[in-house]
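User: Could you go from structure to sequence for me? I need the amino acid at each position, not a summary. Structure tokens:
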């Protein structure tokens, strides 16, 4: 084989491997999403079952009303989660449109609410007013899920998770910081964390997440395809901050509806709680 065709052959193999990596990243993300929603749903079902039992046991109106309220609130939360997942599953395009990052963060946190409570993670939001970002909301949500789950896993005994949103004046980008106060990353590991399959975890944890080493490689690929930046700052024992820079949408562009726009027709007034 001459040099040129050998090179072409290698390039072909690299392309195939890249496609396989992208596929593995997607499957991992899907697996973690299924695991997240199953756990969240199970919790909601427990609430519904327990309050239904309470309502059956007690015949007085006050208790029954309370039971119905709780059941309705839990069901509405279930509907929100379903909508979130359907939004993720439906939106497979690569299209970029102006996305409200506050809404996107909130939609993402809905999916992790129970998990964060369970591990006693307190979410601290510092959102400055920012213009909409010109991104693929679905893909950026995937990045957020990965970063939030990593942050949670870095704080096995609970702690604070700070989310910051601010305009970055110098370059017209929007800055989003996910900071945890957990284990931190040793200096010798730091250069490798974005490598595909690099993981310090033994395997998926009790909630079925982590251990593949594909999360951050996916984050990097997605952010790079957006011509954004992803940066990490970490001090062992103190915590880690991931900073994303995302392009802001041109001033006049209309904002896209949230990707979790209701898929289930629900004529009731949602009870939030
Ligand atoms: N917030 C964080 N705190 C501490 N270590 C982290 C954090 N995020 C990522 N890491 C390190 O980077 C590695 C790679 O992360 P990732 O690509 O998401 O793979 P995985 O979570 O499956 O291990 C992790 O195994 C961990 O060692
Ligand atoms: Mg991970």
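Assistant: Here is the amino acid at each position, in order:
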């Amino acid at each position: 084989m001459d040099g040129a065709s050998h090179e072409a052959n290698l390039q072909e193999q690299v392309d195939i491997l890249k496609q396989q990596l992208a596929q593995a990243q997607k499957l991992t993300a899907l697996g973690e999403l299924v695991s997240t929603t199953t756990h969240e749903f199970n919790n909601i079902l427990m609430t519904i079952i327990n309050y239904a039992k309470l309502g059956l046991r007690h015949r007085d109106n006050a208790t029954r009303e309370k039971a119905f309220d709780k059941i309705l609130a839990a069901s509405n939360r279930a509907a929100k989660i379903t909508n979130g997942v359907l939004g993720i599953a439906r939106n497979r395009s690569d299209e970029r449109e102006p996305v409200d990052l506050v809404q996107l963060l909130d939609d993402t946190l809905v999916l992790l609410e129970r998990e964060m409570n369970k591990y006693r993670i307190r979410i601290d939001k510092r959102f400055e007013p920012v213009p909409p970002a010109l991104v693929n909301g679905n893909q950026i949500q995937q990045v957020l899920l990965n970063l939030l789950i990593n942050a949670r896993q870095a704080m096995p005994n609970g702690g604070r998770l700070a989310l910051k949103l601010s305009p970055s004046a110098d370059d017209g980008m929007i800055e989003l910081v996910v900071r945890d106060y957990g284990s931190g990353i040793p200096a010798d590991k730091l250069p490798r964390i974005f490598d595909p399959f690099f993981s310090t975890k033994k395997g998926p944890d009790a909630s079925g997440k982590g251990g593949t080493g594909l999360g951050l490689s996916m984050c990097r690929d997605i952010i790079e395809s957006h011509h954004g930046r992803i940066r990490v700052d970490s001090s062992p024992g103190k915590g880690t901050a991931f900073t994303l820079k995302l392009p802001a949408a041109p001033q006049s562009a209309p904002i896209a509806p949230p990707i979790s726009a209701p898929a289930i027709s629900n004529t009731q007034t949602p009870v939030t709680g």
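One structural detail worth keeping in mind: The beta strands are 97-99, 121-127, 133-135, 159-168, 173-180, 229-235, 239-247.
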